[in-house]
Amino acid sequence: MNPLDQPVARERAVVTGATSGIGRAIAVRLAQRGAIVGVLGRNAERAQLVADEVSSAGGVPWIGICDVNDPESIDAAIADFVACHGGIDTAVSSAGIALAGTLAQTSVANWHAIMNTNLNGTFYFAKSVMPELIKARGTFTAISSDAGVQGACGYVAYCAAKHALHGLIKCLALDHGRDGVRANAVCPSFVETPMADQLLAETSPEELEHYKNAVPIGRFARPDEVAAAVAHLSSSEASYVNGLMYKIDGGSTAGYYLNI
Fold first, then answer.
1. Structure-model confidence comparison of residues 86 and 218, the more confident one
2. Distance from CA of residue 71 to its chain's centroid?
3. Less Cβ crowding at N or C end of the chain, within 10 Å?
4. pLDDT tens string 135-186
């Protein structure tokens, strides 16, 4: 057989939180470059809808029903994916929740809920996929937030979790760079997703406009813009990028912005 006629091996990717919002956009974007995409999430019906989108975009879908709060369910899903596809080249941790509240307003239960999903869930996922990423010399990308690089009034638990997540990603970059694994985080500001809609559901139109006006670009991000950053970081074009906190925030964290 002519070497040029040999089939090209597909990228093998797994994405948590892939059934909605940013995770869904990432799954579809990776499918556009022909990847096998493990759609990981808790809702089977929504996972099937995203799997259909992955297929339509040119990828090969695989569904794994799991909860990032449960390390055993993550391990089982990853083991099943590897058994089907032989390994993992690209891992994206996108599962997350956002709950508002100052210290006084944040219950212990809500604190733990934020930490379990946004921080512990990423740790469990990274621990599960890292042996495969080392074999493949792959990439690990976490979806963080601009709340991980600065404070945010009224989001004490969310900010704490995202700041801690950055410490985790930096250590993965340091510990596994020599293994050929690159670890990075993408840090968007508000993104137009169902989670943001729910978080801002009781926000007045005036306050919502204030949030948008605080961004130098003057609007919130789109999920596909975040997905594009993930696609870049997980590609060979970013082969020397490791330990980066990639801000996708329209300039929100560039400094004090006076909108006049």
1. 86
2. 17
3. C
4. 999 999 999 998 899 888 889 999 999 999 999 999 999 999 999 999 999 9
Q: What are 206-229's pLDDT values in tens digits?
A: 767 777 777 888 888 899 999 999
Q: Compute CA 40 distance to the chain's CA centroid, rounded to the nearest angstrom.
A: 12
Give catalytic residues, as residue numbers: 158
Are 245 and 149 in contact by the 8 Å Cβ rule? The answer is yes
Please, are residues 31 and 54 in contact by the beta-carbon 8 Å criterion?
Answer: yes
What residue type is assigned to position 65 of the chain? Answer: I
Instruction: Write the DSSP symbol of residue 6.
Output: S
Give yes or no for a contact between 212 and 138, defined as CB atoms under 8 angstroms apart: no
Q: Is residue 199 within 8 Å of residue 98, measured between CB atoms?
A: yes
Q: What is the DSSP string of 119-143?
A: IIHHHHHHHHHHHHHHHHT-EEEEE
